[in-house]
Amino acid sequence: MGPPGVGRAPTLTETISIKVGGMRLTPTERDRLLIFTAAELARSRRSRGLRLNIPEATALIADTVCEAARDGARLAQAMEAGRTVLGPHEVLPGVVDVVDRVEVEAVFDDGTRLVVVTEPFAGPHGSLGEDAPGALLPGPAQPITFPDALRIPVTNTSPVPISVTSHFHFFEVNPRLRFDRRAAYGRRLAIDAGGTVRFDPGQTREVDLTPIGGARVVIGFAGLVDGSLDAPGAIDAALEKAHACGYLDTAAEDQA
Predict the structure, then answer these.
(1) InterPro entries given for it (predicted)?
(2) Cys-Cys with 38: which of 59, 70, 160, 164 at CB 3.0–4.6 Å?
């Protein structure tokens, strides 16, 4: 093959090599340059008062982590730098909801590590305050009450912790949780939206369940219902499917 420009177009590697004085870059080094370039674009747009989109915000967070590592920061310090470089008021609406974590490989003094930045928009809210996308809003002055709450004991029979979120159809939670599945059908945890309940290995704890409201249509989760909760025969069909999949407390003798 001839040199670039003689009978053919230069490849991407050759183009980058020319720009850096003939030094060839590894794929990892090229990726790092792309992140840096996108992050510089994000910084420029932010300086003009523009809110960042998903690629811009992700690149800026990743670049901040990499530069912190290059400066000699430890893993936790680099992670915190990435978490606080942007606040929710500096990104477009919806970005905070979509980007819940950023992962990037950074070179530290003791080697390359994968850094996972969770809650990546923990920077200050700035002048927009409560109007900023993703801002934390104060809860109601009075505690939320849940109608027709049912309290049942739940035991974690697995060797690892299990966490359940507020609006997960409790009937379909982890098969290794032992509880009255029939009683839990059509219910969710009676806790504030976004909350979780953790069950440690071997732990038995009581939880309150409240009926799922609205149209009472359940789609997804573990796929045991996928339709109307109140359709004729729906609960028996769901129990049969759960038993076939190895869920605890779903056999006929368990429900007696």
Answers:
(1) Urease_beta-like, Urease_betasu_sf, Urease_gamma-beta_su, Urease_gamma/gamma-beta_su, Urease_gamma_sf, Urease_subunit
(2) 59
